[in-house]
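Today's session is about reading a structure prediction critically. Students often jump straight to the picture, but the first step is always the sequence itself: look for stretches that repeat, for charged clusters, for runs of hydrophobic residues. Only then move on to the predicted structure, which in these notes is written as discrete structure tokens rather than atom positions. Here is the chain we will use throughout the hour.
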Amino acid sequence: MTTTLIIIICIIFLIAYFFDLTSSRTRIPAVILLLLLGWGIKQLTVFFHLEIPNLTSILPILGTIGLILIVLEGSLELELNKQKLPVIGKSLLLALLPMFILSLILAFLFMHFGQYSFRNSLINAIPLCIISSAIAIPSVKGLSMSNREFVIYESSLSDIFGIIIFNFIAINGTINTQSFTHFALQILTIIIVSFVATIGLSFLLSRSKHHIKYVPIILFVILIYSISKFYHLPGLVFVLLFGLFIGNIDELKQLKWLKVFDTDNLNSEVQKFKNIVIEGTFLIRTLFFILFGFLIETEEILNTNTLVWSVGIVAGILIVRYIFLKFTKLPITPLLYVAPRGLITILLFLSILPSQSISFVNKSLIIQVIVLTALVMMTGILKKPQKTTILSENEILEL
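Below is the predicted structure for this chain, in token form.
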């Protein structure tokens, strides 16, 4: 039995690797194929009457670790210089304002049709308005470098600010001067923690002579994030800043205090560290989305009671996004379609307290919105013509 299970697990991961390998050519996001694979495995277990333990409790753990690694992987790939300021500014705008507007619209609709309090309506609306970096980042590998960079920045910032806003609303029963003061202290605290932890981990990465050092650093990153979350601090800020710092050490060489680092050796170690993070992210992301696909019930996808709401929400996402893309003069295709909901939506939905939940936002609605936005993204990416290498390089220079 043990040997059979090992064989099955190996085959599943090799299939997932094949999806990842071919996604840039087929232009079908690997995430969609992983969800289908997980759902297919579930149907096989039902057909053969196999007893599988309840795996629901594992999903938030995998999701949290996957989120950390995905944001870390994305931030390691980003260049931080003056030329990148326009794309960073536009991605911040697209990450914040559409999420803010959609959250308010949905909250008012929930409050109007369900007679819920505005606060509870807003708590349930926010998870549906956050772009999932876990789905967006790995799905745009076949796009041009400029589009990929924008998606990485936008989805990462959407995750970070979405979690910050959600926690702020969910924790504070009353929004007043005291709650904003406390919030400002939390932001200041995480910035200080990020600075100290980033310096310490970077020093460890550049100076450590032990043959095992990359996994402990990843564990430290996860540990610091988890402790920050325990104290309701925005831990993703630390993950993003750490990745940006060590990934852009060449851009920061002029800073005098960086002489304490062996920057040449640090650059070499960062490349190795990045490879470990990429492969670790692949494993965790694969497990999460296969498990999520496995836990999807067909009845939940086809629930007609929530279908009108889910279609309306997806339509709202596209309309608001189209307006802001036009306003910022960014390319409509394919960026209009790359706004999937996923990992963060699931994690925040699972964290809503029973006293704060509303009947409109249930598992069926969450699954339908995730599936619909993933299908919209797939359609948009399939419509986008392939970019040549020369064009991609020109776009890099333009940024």
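Discussion point for the tutorial: The CA atoms of residues 62 and 288 lie 6 Å apart.
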